[in-house]
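**Backbone shape codes:**
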Amino acid sequence: MEFLIKGYVNNLTEQNIVDYAYKNGVSVTDEETKIIYLYVKNYWQVFLKGNADGLFMELREKLRPNTYQVIVKLFNEYKSKM
């Protein structure tokens, strides 16, 4: 599973983030897109296997409330399926 996620993250683009957000009813700003992209690229293993509470606290400060809430909701949904 980790191998598949790593491959996806390696090929991830900022446009993928914009498209995925749109599919989930969220319009992200350019700044939010850059932030989310950097966090996924740099910390995907922490989100996958570690304690991501500190990262979520940082994101809460950097993103608009609605964007943050959707990210947390989606994260929890996907994490519960793993």
Remarks:
- Residues 2-81 form one domain.
- The CA atoms of residues 11 and 41 lie 10 Å apart.
- The mean pLDDT is 93.
